[in-house]
């Protein structure tokens, strides 16, 4: 997970901002799915 996303999630959880948490969660799943696609060179361990 990118560092900027971790920081944004921690901030949103600290503020209990449900809208922001949901948005960032969707961003993470989009990022993770695009990184795991067969044509992608970049993969997370």
Characteristic terms for this protein:
about 45 residues; mainly alpha; CmpA
In short:
It comes from Paenibacillus monticola. With 45 residues, the chain is an all-alpha fold. Helices cover 69% and strands 0% of the residues.
Mind describing the biggest β-sheet? none
- Structural class given helices, strands, pairing? mainly alpha
Extract low-pLDDT stretches. none
What is the beta-strand fraction? under 5%
What's the number of helices?
A: 2
Distance between the termini: 10 Å
Give the C-alpha Rg.
Answer: 12 Å
Organism: Paenibacillus monticola
Protein name: Cortex morphogenetic protein CmpA
InterPro entries: CmpA
Structure description:
This protein is mainly α and 45 residues long. It has a domain at 3-32. It has helices at residues 3-15, 18-35. Helix 1 packs antiparallel against helix 2 (18-35). The longest helix has 18 residues, at 18-35. The N and C termini lie close together (10 Å).
SSE arrangement:
Elements (H helix, E strand, L loop, with lengths): L2 H13 L2 H18 L10
């Amino acid at each position: 997970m990118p560092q900027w996303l971790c920081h944004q999630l921690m901030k949103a959880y600290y503020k209990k901002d449900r809208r922001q948490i949901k948005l960032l969660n969707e961003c993470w799943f989009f990022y993770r799915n695009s990184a795991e696609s067969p044509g992608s060179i970049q993969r997370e361990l």
